[in-house]
Amino acid sequence: MNGSLSDNFHLIKPVEFALPSGVVTANSFGYQVEFRGNWHAQFVKFDGTGGLYNWLRYKFIVVPGQSQVTIADFDPMGGDIIPQPPDRYLRFVKELQLGEINLQFLVLTGLRDSGDQIADLNDLIVSGDLDPILDNIESRMLISSSA
After folding, report:
1. Fewer CB within 10 Å, N side or C side of the chain?
2. Does residue 138 lie in a domain region?
3. In which residue ranges of the chain is pLDDT below 50?
4. pLDDT value at residue 39
5. Is the distance from CB of 145 to CB of 37 less than 8 angstroms?
6. Is residue 39 within 8 Å of residue 1, measured between CB atoms?
């Protein structure tokens, strides 16, 4: 998986930030993330209370109320590297039905933590920008780097 994702968030009204060099006013802000990774396949065990795993749709289905899902024998750094997940898996990623839960595990490395407190900007962002849809995913982004 190689590629980059980016997005821009518009602010409801301009916001001033105090920097050592002076005050800066922002109307929007954006990000760009470069990534490289692999798809891994491994055998795990699912167990749950008040639900089941739908093997045809790759989703958990739980009953209303309190339920618990357990995944055993999962190694986030293990498994076999595969070129890409099955096409049927990619088809169902965005199509959740009522009562379904989709689980996807990501291991992220190389991110730096500045240790600074992070401001909650949700109240400042135009509401339509808070739920981005990643529709600009290229096919090369879905193929393992090391396969």
Report:
1. C
2. no
3. none
4. 85
5. yes
6. yes
Domain presence at residue 122: no
pLDDT tens sequence across 18-31: 999 999 999 998 98
- pLDDT for 89 equals 64
Q: Which two tokens stand for residue 32?
A: 């760009």
CB neighbours of 83 closer than 8 A, spacing ≥ 6? 39, 143, 144, 147
What tokens appear for 77 in the block? 């750094």
Residue 139 belongs to some domain of the structure: no
Number of domains into which the chain is organized: 1
Tokens (6 digits) for 57: 């749709």
In a domain, 146, yes or no: no
pLDDT value, residue 16: 92
What is this structure's pTM?
Answer: 0.57
CA distances from residue 36 to 3, 23, 39, 129, 144 in whole angstroms, order as listed: 7, 36, 11, 26, 8
